[in-house]
Design brief:
Length: 185
């Protein structure tokens, strides 16, 4: 289910007040998420905690989407921990315009630490498919992220359950073979 986000993003045709608001709030939040600078984000979030649910990119990504797709560093890991601690489970289900959750983006980026933090809080998050039914495990295989594939497969109950079909299991196997990660376990 696609959850529509409250938008902070302004359109090119919008008023300068909205544009200024985005430049003064959205851009610093984005930069803080990419760098893993929790102190910078926290100072903004203290003034308005609802911003954790706002889209801050044109693809309607939240702070968690941005941090989950960033390079995995200690700062980004701490950022994700602090952010997830502020979030409710339903906030972790927010999807961008492409219907990807932050877990899907972490799977694509191979950001295993961020994925572990999200799944620890919301274990069924890994059962939320993307636009065309792509599960996070499939995305990790598609992008050739063997450590992420191992982690997600290990917690997927061998790809069983209501969200897995013979076809979707076959897609994961095919992507693992194509990425050269099949058999490395």
């Amino acid at each position: 289910m696609h959850i529509f986000l409250l938008k902070l993003i302004c359109e090119v045709t919008s008023s300068t007040g909205s544009r200024e608001k985005y430049i003064s709030i959205g851009v610093p939040l984005y930069q803080a998420a990419i760098r893993g600078d929790w102190k910078a984000a926290e100072s903004i979030l203290k003034r308005n905690g609802d911003l954790i649910r706002f889209a801050i990119t044109e693809n309607e990504e939240t702070l968690l989407h941005v941090a989950a797709s960033a390079e995995s560093t200690k700062g980004v890991e701490d950022f994700v921990i602090n952010l997830v601690n502020l979030m409710e489970k339903k906030d972790l289900e927010l999807q961008n315009r492409s219907y990807d959750t932050a877990l899907n983006l972490a799977a694509m980026a191979g950001n295993e630490k961020a994925a572990r933090i999200m799944v620890e809080k919301h274990p069924t998050l890994m059962d939320i498919p993307g636009k065309r039914g792509e599960m996070p495990l499939y995305m990790a295989a598609l992008y050739g992220k063997p450590a992420m594939v191992r982690y997600l497969y290990g917690i997927s109950n061998k790809m069983s359950g209501d969200f897995w079909s013979h076809e979707s299991r076959g897609w994961v196997l095919q992507r693992c073979v194509e990425a050269g990660i099949f058999g490395k376990y």
